Amino acid sequence: MKASKNETIVQVENLKMYFPITRGLLRRKVGDVKAVDDISFDIKKHETLGLVGESGCGKTTTGRCILRLYQPTSGKIIFSGIDISKLPERKIKDHRRDMGTIFQDPFGSLNPRQSAGGIVGDPLKIHHMASGKELKGRVEELFELVGLDPSMMDRVPHEFSGGQRQRIGVARALACNPSLVVCDEPISALDVSIQAQIINLLEELQEKLGLTYLFIAHDLAVVQHISDRVAVMYLGRIMELTSSTELYENPLHPYTKALLSAIPIPDPAAERTRSRIVLKGEVPSPVNPPPGCHFHPRCSLAIKECSETRPPLRDVGNNHYVACIRV
């Protein structure tokens, strides 16, 4: 695992992202979907921060807030020393050039009527970074960088395999030489054999270009492999945040323990001897989350105080942060 530097590239402070619920002809507001509910974390330069959790926990919304595709309800997003959370759209464009994003679906995130070369070159045109022969040369360079033959530049997306399409998506994300890349479940729509190739490609590019990744996923085994640190989200809040090694060897939050117990082990003997933690009930609605700790209705360790007080994300030693009063 590569060593990360102490310099912070992204700092998220008390971030909230609420989506209003409206009803009636006058579209009167009747509530909020609390997709991200007051979270704080940072991402160091040249590191990979894994963001994991069940579907609907707010992972993708967090990534989109950092990219400023959403205007946060409140909180700060400090990118390279500048708070971008309230910047107007005309000013955010300059900062967005330093951010790349790799989308989950390589089939839906590419324009089916545009050539692969045109797709990769679009960010360079939008930010006025290259044109003419210079643009063509840069696109060819990006194709080679992600392991594609530049002679395929004139082909349209349906002529590529799923793995090749995702490589086009990676090339597009890197077009403007970003310092931060948000990877929004970049391998979940791919075959297992292709997943390993894309993960290896991302690691090679990080080493070569000095990239910083926010890696959003629900596959804990993949996150363990690629991440330096891991943040575990549940219902809009971060439950645990620590180094990848520490999280998998010494999980402290009951929710993290349940998630890790669900990872299959490719050893029948070991699989038979370990016990699976089955959580009771369903994930509550983000429209009306439980008071106190969001996880308390499903937690086997819950006591009365868990439903009354929100546990802070506190350091319990060795830079291991846990939001649980029972730890």
SSE diagram, text form:
Layout (H helix, E strand, L loop, with lengths): L7 E16 L4 E17 L3 E5 L6 H8 L7 E6 L2 E2 L5 H8 L2 E4 L13 H11 L5 H14 L16 H13 L5 E5 L7 H18 L2 E6 L2 H7 L2 E6 L2 E7 H6 L4 H8 L6 H6 L40 E2 L5 E2 L5
Helix pairs in contact: 3-4, 3-5, 4-5, 5-6
Spatially, the strands of the biggest sheet line up as: 6-7-8-3-9-10-12-11
Large-scale geometry: globular
Number of strands: 12
Beta-strand content estimate: 15-25%
Which sequence of SSEs, written as H and E, runs from N to C?
A: EEEHEEHEHHHEHEHEEHHHEE
CATH topology of the largest domain: Rossmann fold
**CATH classification, class level of the largest domain:** Alpha Beta
The helix content, as a percent range, equals 25-40%
Number of helices: 10
- The radius of gyration computed from the alpha-carbon positions, rounded to a whole number of angstroms, is 21 Å
Mean pLDDT: 90
CATH architecture label of the largest domain: 3-Layer(aba) Sandwich
Main pleated sheet: 8 strands, mixed
Write out the CATH superfamily name of the largest domain: P-loop containing nucleotide triphosphate hydrolases
Concise structural overview:
With 327 residues, the chain is α/β, with parallel strands linked by helices.
What does this structure look like?
This protein is of the alpha/beta class and 327 residues long. The protein has 2 domains: 8-98 and 178-322, Rossmann fold (3-Layer(aba) Sandwich); 113-176, no CATH class. Helix content is 30%, strand content 24%. The chain has 10 helices and 12 strands. It has helices spanning 59-66, 89-96, 116-126, 132-145, 162-174, 192-209, 220-226, 244-249, 254-261, 268-273, and strands at 8-23, 28-44, 48-52, 74-79, 82-83, 99-102, 180-184, 212-217, 229-234, 237-243, 314-315, 321-322. The strands form 2 sheets. An 8-stranded mixed β-sheet has the order 6-7-8-3-9-10-12-11, sandwiched between helices. Strand 9 (229-234) and strand 10 form a beta hairpin. The radius of gyration is 21 Å and the shape is globular.
